[in-house]
């Protein structure tokens, strides 16, 4: 031990002549947040030691001492007995120092042929891989529940909207499958991101590689990585995968916020389309009648913080010269928070969506009230030879009459309708009903109940195929 190492950091204090300023030590330390990577740090170290022994840099005894020591430390951390030290800066040096405490000088050999730069990049990728798998399971659960509800509600009629004005009748199942399509794309983006996460920086050492005869294929295989990263300079400094994950997360949360917004609208007395079970809602401390849709509101609100993390990470990486820079330590907090937020929001939705209780009569009434079959009447006239623009005009006049007399198109008598066109006959009522309107949109991607059932089946198959692929 060098004489200075009492006063300066033990791991790198050799060339320093005065101790680190107390504030600077706190300012530069990351242990308060990167201790979350402890499990992956130990996992990476065990693989590194195993590889070093295989290529003859460590003896088998040294390797075993290191692995046993690290395994004990893992237990200490899990039991909450580990003493995290801010002067030891980060998770890596905390664990290494404890290992040396426990097994003596052999502990100091663990860091042979690596650097904290490739170590931390490896730890975050292992962490992200674990989290992506948990997030994927929640996303799958949500999609499953949504497809099932869509199938159950394939015949349930509601108004479809453009500009939030009643447009044409759709089925509730069709609406739910629209949500499901958004999530299907998110799911693909997540799995695509995982491919680029699962590449191993370890062995890049500080930036240029190492002089020891390491075998990176061995470590990659032990850690379940697809391959070692190609270029050491890139591998220690690349954080694209963090940006890709937060991009995925931002788009997913954008989708969840759209769904949330609709759930909030639909639970209002003004829409009255659905009920959410009490367990997903809270009351008001002052207004006894209130039942607030807090869960979707909060998901809608949390979207903003995830967008913020994406912006933070993009800006963090902007203009960074190769290779590792201390800036990169700032990747962890946004990434951790994005992971936690996505997990929680997906869990909330996966629990809540199957519990949505549609108020079918109320949805039906709303679709009936808004002249939602006006396009169907126009299409009917066109089928009888009227030009579309003329048909549009005829229907416009019928709607104006309906507004004045407070009657929907389907509630008018044949004589009333014939005031606007004598081409209209008794068979018009088949297209003016809501059931007739949705059933007529009977092609792939359309809202007809049979199409919704077929689409639900295809969605289920696509989900199963994706699960099989990952
Ligand atoms: N705590 C650091 C981080 O999170 C670990 C790598 C530090 N490397 C270094 N040379 N200072 O990025």
From TrEMBL:
Q: Look up the EC number in the record and give it.
A: 4.3.2.1
Where does this protein act, in terms of pathway? Amino-acid biosynthesis; L-arginine biosynthesis; L-arginine from L-ornithine and carbamoyl phosphate: step 3/3
Main localization of the protein described in the UniProt heading: cytoplasm
Q: Which GO terms describe its cellular component?
A: cytosol
Q: Where is the Fumarate lyase N-terminal domain?
A: 14-308
Cell location: Cytoplasm
According to its UniProt record, which reaction does this protein catalyse? Answer: 2-(N(omega)-L-arginino)succinate = fumarate + L-arginine
The Gene Ontology biological process terms listed for this entry are: L-arginine biosynthetic process via ornithine
UniProt keywords, alphabetically: Amino-acid biosynthesis, Arginine biosynthesis, Cytoplasm, Lyase
* UniProt-recorded Gene Ontology molecular function terms: argininosuccinate lyase activity
Query: Which enzyme class, named as a word?
Result: lyase
Q: Boundaries of each Argininosuccinate lyase C-terminal domain copy?
A: 371-439
Q: Fetch the PANTHER family from UniProt.
A: ARGININOSUCCINATE LYASE
User: HAMAP family attached here?
Assistant: Arg_succ_lyase
The family assignment reads: Belongs to the lyase 1 family. Argininosuccinate lyase subfamily. In the N-terminal section; belongs to the lyase 1 family. Argininosuccinate lyase subfamily.
> Protein name, please?
Argininosuccinate lyase
Q: Which organism is it from?
A: Vreelandella aquamarina
